[in-house]
Structures are given as structure tokens and as C-alpha cells.
Amino acid sequence: MKKNERVVVIGGSSGMGFEIAKMALAKGAEVVIAGRSIQRLEAACVALGENGVEIAVVDIGQQSEVAALFKLVGQLDHLVVTAADLSYGPVTELKESDLMRAVRSKLLGPLFAAQESASRIRPGGSITFTSGIAARRPMRGGAAAAAINSGLEGLARSLAIELAPLRVNVVSPGWTDTPIWDGMTGMTEDRKHEVHSSMAARLPSGRIGRVEDIAEAVFFLMKNGFVTGTVLDVDGGHRLV
Ligand SMILES: NC(=O)c1ccc[n+]([C@@H]2O[C@H](COP(=O)([O-])OP(=O)(O)OC[C@H]3O[C@@H](n4cnc5c(N)ncnc54)[C@H](OP(=O)(O)O)[C@@H]3O)[C@@H](O)[C@H]2O)c1
């Protein structure tokens, strides 16, 4: 990444997106972090040190809001999307409203963001989406995540052809310790520690992911000009076990 490049991170107020914003700032980029909650964005902005950071409220699942975001942003170099509002639970009990929110946030949202940003991304720039291990290693209660992550990877391959020479890639994280876990039903701190430790013991890596693992992979995808239409698994070997 070159100094003063402009990076937009939708989902940048938390977890992986926040770490990507932090690393981009450390590399001298101008960063826009976007998400739905102004409180989360403001808190993230303070934690990032405010210099070189802009915040923007957007629900990525609403096309008009995404259009307004990129009108405001203007030209940029790299778009990263980590936003997701997924629903988990037994497949027979998943509600249409929850499923539609999940599809909007993590499949249609990235499509809207690509539509609205493509003509504004400078030559040499990139788009990076975030899918996830659920696409490769389905588990009970994860049908929506599996379908949406798989769909997102297909979308990125298609965009890599249609928007070329703009590069479009996907990072597919394995289990990573971020605030996403705190929002899950019944996930107390003790329970989280228990499930993370038991997953760590199963993985070839011997640990679950850290946000830095994912952010570093995103920077590789951003800067390598010969990589497009690729899904980069950063999962500690989860797909093998
Ligand atoms: N953590 C893991 O173990 C794991 C594993 C595999 C894949 N992933 C994937 O990795 C990505 C990042 O996850 P994370 O763990 O970093 O999550 P996180 O800490 O919960 O952060 C999610 C971010 O997305 C924003 N967001 C959610 N819905 C949005 C919407 N509709 N419009 C705009 N922004 C929205 C959130 O802010 P607001 O709520 O304020 O909008 C927040 O900034 C997700 O796609 C997730 O599915 C995570």
C-alpha cells in the first residue's frame, strides 16, 4: 500500500475491519470506516486516534445508502467489506426476516458496494470481501452463513471478470476472536472461552485466529497486482480437519 491511498472499510468499527483500518492508518493511508451504529463508529474513530480517519453511517444492505456513501467518499484506492449480520439456528426455524437481513448484509451489500465503488476506484486499486469457513465446513445451525459465504465467493469470481482490470478477491477467515462472538445467543465469556479452546485443540494451527492474521491477508490481496478472483483461506487449517 502506498502512502496517502484512500481505503474504505465497511465494517471498520469492529473486529477484523477495525484492525484493517488500524493497519492501513499505520501504513499512511486515509481511511473511511463505515457501519450502521454511529456510536460504534465514533468509539472506533477515537480508538484509532482520529487522525486520517473519517466515519460514515451506512447499512450496506440498502442500495440507496451505499450509493450515498460512495458519492460522499468520491475517489478511492481500496474497498474492503467485512460487514455481516448473519443469523444462526436450526435450519427449520430460521425466519424469513432474519434470513433477508443476513443476505442483504453479506451478499447483496457487497454487490451494491462493488456497483457503487467500481468507477471510483483508481487504477491499481482493489476490492476485498470477507466470506468464512462456514462455506467449506458446514456446521449445525450455520446454513445461512454457509450459503451466503459460498454465494459471496461466486460473486467475487464473477466481478473479477466483469470489472477487470479492477481486482476483486475474498479472504475466508476461520474462527477468529472478535466481538461478533459476544453478540451470539447464550455466549457468555466463559462459554466463548470454552468453545474457542476446544476449536483451537482441533486445529493444525493449535489456536484460533487473531484479527491481525486476517488483516495481513487482506493487505496481501490489496497489494499483489497479479491476484484476482481468489479466495484466500486464513483458517488455521480448519478446512482440513
Ligand atoms: N469472527 C469470526 O470468527 C469469523 C469467522 C468467519 C467469518 N467471519 C466473517 O468475518 C467478517 C468480519 O467479522 P468480525 O468478526 O470482524 O465481525 P464484528 O466484529 O461483529 O464486526 C462487524 C462489523 O460490520 C458492521 N456491520 C454489520 N452489519 C452491517 C450492515 N448491515 N451494514 C454496515 N455495516 C454492518 C458492524 O457495525 P454495525 O453493527 O454498527 O453496523 C461491525 O463494524 C464477517 O463477514 C464475518 O461473517 C468471522
UniProtKB/TrEMBL annotation:
It is an enzyme of class 1 (oxidoreductase). The gene is fabG_12. Residues 5-178 form the Ketoreductase domain. The lineage of its organism: unclassified sequences, metagenomes, ecological metagenomes. This is 3-oxoacyl-[acyl-carrier-protein] reductase FabG. PANTHER family: DIHYDROANTICAPSIN 7-DEHYDROGENASE. Belongs to the short-chain dehydrogenases/reductases (SDR) family. GO terms for molecular function: 3-oxoacyl-[acyl-carrier-protein] reductase (NADPH) activity. Pfam families: adh_short_C2. Its EC number is 1.1.1.100. Keywords: Oxidoreductase. CDD domains: Lin1944_like_SDR_c. SUPFAM superfamilies: NAD(P)-binding Rossmann-fold domains.
